[in-house]
Write a structure and sequence with these properties.
about 325 residues, D-Maltodextrin-Binding Protein, domain 2, 2 domains, 12 helices, 10 strands, globular, BUG, Tripartite tricarboxylate transporter family receptor, signal
């Protein structure tokens, strides 16, 4: 009988060992052995897509596997986030995220079935300055003139403002602007920054609050849009913004100061060893001089490398900050 128990114990150990070898530890040891997807939750052609196209090649070099960019716009970027959450927690799906998709969209839209806590920040990409962009023929050339115009038309023909979707940061800031100046404004949602800028350049929407992009600068040079002001506390030293005043240089929007960030995320329960490999690859890629130069060209202030603890602390703090901002704003089109 004792020999039988010994055989059963050995068999049990073999089963346990097999389970361990096929579990997270084995997954991490084998990672990556196939292409890694990089989800951009907006259509191709916008700033988010441009960032991914810069970062993907050096990350691929670091991982030794192709890194393929996937674009999936819709629901303020939450559609792409939900697709990542539906995939396995194995590190083969990176999500390029910002406050739009991960923090604000779940608050604004009950159809979005995700929580900020479902994701984990692996590495921050950087911060981006934000600007008020207007159609070229809008009768306002400064932030103060925009406020005066919005107030004068509030009751008869409210100004329209575009965003990348209901509940996005740019929707929140547009509503916050309207509330701050005491004027009615009408929200026009889009699936991404590229189609929004096309309509802004075509004069079909009045203004938008967005991160500064090469597309905006090109349209401004063509005379199709104009940059009224940045939301930085003081005039930016970026070459593209040296001629654009800060809202604080006027009188009517002083203190309306905001920036936004972008980072790479995975599902919260991704194995620690896989996260460590991704973090090392991303940190190395972000410090590549060519990547830094390209991101600076996209008007991104590149973040320094972060430890896992630093990344988690920052993400939790930013989640609370943006939840606080959104709690003070009633979003048109939301329950």
């Amino acid at each position: 009988m004792s020999k039988l128990f010994d055989r059963l114990r050995l068999a049990g150990c073999a089963v346990a060992l097999g389970a361990a070898l096929s579990g997270p530890a084995a997954l991490a040891a084998d990672y990556p052995n196939r292409p890694v997807m990089m989800m951009v939750p907006y259509p191709a052609g916008g700033t988010s897509d441009a960032i991914a196209r810069v970062v993907a090649p050096p990350v691929s070099k670091q991982l030794g596997q192709p890194v393929l960019v996937e674009n999936l716009g819709g629901v303020s970027g939450a559609l792409g986030a939900q697709k990542v959450l539906a995939a396995k927690s194995d590190g083969y799906y990176l999500f390029q995220g910002s406050p739009n998709e991960l923090i604000l969209s779940p608050i604004a839209n009950p159809a979005v079935k995700l929580k900020s806590e479902d994701f984990r920040l692996v590495q921050m990409i950087g911060m981006a300055p934000m600007v008020i962009v207007a159609r070229s023929d809008l009768p306002a050339a400064t932030a103060d003139e925009l406020v005066t115009l919005a107030r004068s038309r509030s009751a008869t023909q409210p100004l329209t403002f575009g965003s990348v979707g209901v509940g996005s940061l740019y929707h929140v800031l547009g509503e916050h602007l309207a509330r701050t100046i005491g004027a009615n404004m009408v929200h026009v949602p889009y699936k991404g920054g590229a189609p929004l800028m096309q309509d802004l350049g075509g004069g079909q929407v009045d203004i938008a609050i967005l991160p500064l992009s090469q597309q905006q600068m090109a349209l401004a040079e063509q005379g199709r849009v104009k940059l009224l002001a940045s939301l930085d506390p003081q005039r930016s030293t970026l070459p593209a913004l040296k001629a654009v005043p800060s809202v604080n240089e006027g009188q009517l929007l002083k203190g309306f100061n905001f920036t936004t960030w972008t980072g790479y995320f995975v599902k919260r329960d991704t194995p620690e060893a896989v996260v460590a490999q991704l973090q090392a690859a991303l940190n190395a890629a972000m410090q590549d001089p060519a990547v830094k130069q390209s991101l600076t060209y996209q008007n991104i202030e590149v973040s320094a490398p972060m430890s896992a603890e630093q990344a988690d602390t920052m993400y939790r703090a930013e989640t609370e900050r943006f939840r606080e901002i959104s709690s003070h704003v009633k979003l048109a089109g939301t329950p």
